[in-house]
Design a protein that fits this description.
By secondary structure, the chain is of the alpha+beta class. It contains two helices and four strands.
Length: 89
């Protein structure tokens, strides 16, 4: 069903209610780290996230996810439902 919770997410750090920080401390950064951050961005109102990798050398990776669709959904009111051709927007 749409709009039904399917799980929870545990974010490492949120800065100023604007940026998600995902902290990893491994020798090699696993490719799933960016997928995890992208999933967090898709599932929340946040649009900017950083993976901080403390491995052999400290590095960071930035991910930006536009939540324009979410803003449009929130702005719709019950008295103004979307048209069927809007694909759920």
């Amino acid at each position: 069903c749409k709009n039904e919770d399917v799980g929870t997410q545990q974010l490492d750090i949120v800065v100023d209610d604007k940026i998600i920080l995902e902290v990893k401390a491994t020798l090699v950064l696993h490719q799933s780290a960016m997928r995890q951050l992208t999933s967090y961005l898709k599932g929340t109102e946040f649009e900017v996230g950083l993976v901080l990798h403390f491995g052999e050398e400290a590095k960071f990776y930035r991910r930006i996810w536009s939540n324009e669709t979410k803003r449009n959904i929130r702005s719709l009111s019950a008295s103004n439902p979307p048209h069927p051709w809007q694909n759920g927007v």
